[in-house]
Amino acid sequence: MAKVIGIDLGTTNSAVAVVDAGFPMLLANQDGKRLTPSVVHFDTASHPSAIGEEAARMGLLEPAQTVYSVKRFMGRRFEEVTQQEKEVHYPLNGSKGQPIKVALKDRCMLPEEVAAEILKSLKKTAEIALECSIEKAVITVPAYFNDAQRQATMEAGRLAGLQVERIINEPTAAALAYGLNKLKDQARIAVYDLGGGTFDITILELNEGVFRVLSTQGNTCLGGDDLDQAILDHFLQIIGKEVELDVVLEEQGALPRLREAAQKAKIALSTQASTAVKLPFLGKDFHFNEEFTREQLEQIALPVIDRTRPHCVRAMHDAGLETVDLDQVLLVGGQTRMPLVRKRVNAYFKCSVFEETRGNVRLGDTFHTPDGPTLNTGQNPDEAVALGAAIQGAILSGEIKHMTLLDVTPLSLGIETFGGLMNVLIPRNSTIPIKAGEVFTTAVDRQEETLIHVLQGEREKAADNWSLGRFMIPFENAPKGVPRLGVQFEIDANGVLNVLARDIHTGNEQILEFKSVIDVEDATVTQMVESAVEHAMEDLESRHWIENSLKAKTLLKAVKQSVDECSDVLDAHYLASVLEASSKLEGVLARENTEKRSGDTNSLKSAIKNLDEITQELAHIQLDRMAASYLDQEQEP
């Protein structure tokens, strides 16, 4: 069945997600990141040339050709956009009664045409990750988007080559991502969504998995962009006291550099008490160097954040509820990472407990109001909406038929392979029931049987994981690499693991049943995962060493055999170079039993490459000799 992806088309960042085997996950873009900046750079011919982080970097060089925050303009007429909103680095035009447009050098574009380029990039990300064509999507919008803005979002999807199965509200998507649809009892939830360019407050009532919107309020022109502008204005005031402001602003890229610095400072102060803002050569002979503190940020940001409060009050009034009637307040949107935002939301709704730290930095005060709702920060606020959209897509495609919580595998499952490594067949957090398999072969000549060692855990080396059991499977006597062994893991709905191993040539097979592999204590799982994280770099180094050492040993064996067979025709100087390269590789391999091999893997790879290159001539000599021998046999009477 065709996949339906979920897309959060954000003002600042966008994301794409999908449900795989019942488990929602965000897909990483070509930069390896799950969030893609909603920025498009156009070349001089007004063609899209970069999207995401690359486009954002180009914005410092060619701001007039780089479009950002376009979501704010979708579905709006020229006169509906305030003068402050029009103060972007790229030109806008339009006339009364007509849609606002982005004015590039060679053409004017509707905002949805720009948004379509972002959606195309997300579509491509999904197709690369899933290795299939993607045609259908669920796209989220702010709850306060009007019909024109929703239609513009639909049109952007169509222009991107997507069939938009549904437009859903971001608060509903967030509630799905938080798993609130699985609450059995009736609950009332407030979703506070402060993103890059929009703000929503939605009051939901949940009853046995059914959502009902009691009220919604918001502002489609209020968000992180306004905070960035307020910080930018603060920086401009400081600069104006030191030099002629117009002289600085005349420098190409000065304003975009300041805006980027404002955004980075805002992000840094979510986890730090202060940050240094350094912009050398912002103007001719002028360097901007300022220490910016969280206290300063909060003074600047407070008026912007408090603009959300009247919407919260009206939403609660419209729903006919008091704060004590709420069970939870969900925080959604990247701006809710700010400690000040969390403190203010806590004050608005009189939440029962609010205390958060990151590292050694305290992010907020502690409040105790026994009758108040719980402030729920259990999801990544940047990712929740996209994950919820993916869940909605899976419901529409039939992949999720009932909104019930399925058990998942708490730890990865796999088998030990040659060299003492663990080969994972079922990754952790896979939804059960599940079936997965892989084909293996032998690593030793004339091997008549092989050991199937079943493992559970997150470490790279088999010895560092838990052994669930072992059994032998017989083979026909054959050279290495010839036998084919199929291994299949199957976990049923009760969590019972069945492992099947079959000799594909003879059909001989064995099946072993294990006890439930999902009934693992939380503390034990946490211990294993923490151990995997702690030793991640060490384990990765070990895996790379083992894989390359196996390759080296195979190569040395092949070279020795070739030298023995062809020594009578090899030039003495060339033979010496082959033996020297072999000796160097053996020398690096001799470190295999040392406990610390940091950096030796690169030496091993280099030695393998060196020997491989030197023996290319030897390989040709041996191949010619084999060909001649074959022809001689063919000519015999």
Mean pLDDT: 81
What is the straight-line distance between the termini? Answer: 62 Å
CATH topology of the largest domain: Nucleotidyltransferase, domain 5
The first-level CATH class of the largest domain is given as Alpha Beta
Our count of helices gives: 16
Reported for the largest beta sheet, the result is: 6 strands, mixed
CATH superfamily of the largest domain: ATPase, nucleotide binding domain
Structural category: alpha+beta
* Overall helicity: 25-40%
Low-pLDDT stretches: 353-369, 403-407
Number of separate strands: 31
The fraction of residues in strands falls at 25-35%
Kindly provide the radius of gyration, computed on alpha-carbon positions and rounded to a whole number of angstroms: 31 Å
- Shape by Cα distribution: globular
CATH architecture of the largest domain: 2-Layer Sandwich
Question: How many domains make up the coordinates?
Answer: 4
Quick gist of this model?
This protein has 637 residues and is α+β, with helices and mostly antiparallel strands. The chain has 16 helices and 31 strands.
Describe this structure in words.
Helix 5 (224-242) crosses helix 7 (254-268), helix 5 (224-242) packs across helix 8 and helix 13 (536-566) runs antiparallel to helix 14. The relative contact order is 0.08. With 637 residues, this protein is α+β, with helices and mostly antiparallel strands. Helices cover 37% and strands 27% of the residues. It contains 16 helices and 31 strands. The chain folds into 4 domains: 4-178, ATPase, nucleotide binding domain (Nucleotidyltransferase, domain 5), CATH 3.30.420; 224-301, ATPase, substrate binding domain, subdomain 4 (Actin, Chain A, domain 4); 413-519, Substrate Binding Domain Of DNAk, Chain A, domain 1 (Sandwich), CATH 2.60.34.10; 536-635, Substrate Binding Domain Of Dnak, Chain:A, Domain 2, CATH 1.20.1270.10. The strands form 9 sheets. Strands 1, 2, 3, 4, 11 and 12 form a 6-stranded mixed sheet that branches. The protein has a 5-stranded mixed sheet with strand order 15-14-13-18-23, with helices on both faces. Strand 14 and strand 15 (210-219) form a beta hairpin. The radius of gyration is 31 Å and the shape is globular. Mean pLDDT is 81; it is low at 353-369 and 403-407. The chain starts with a strand and ends with a helix.
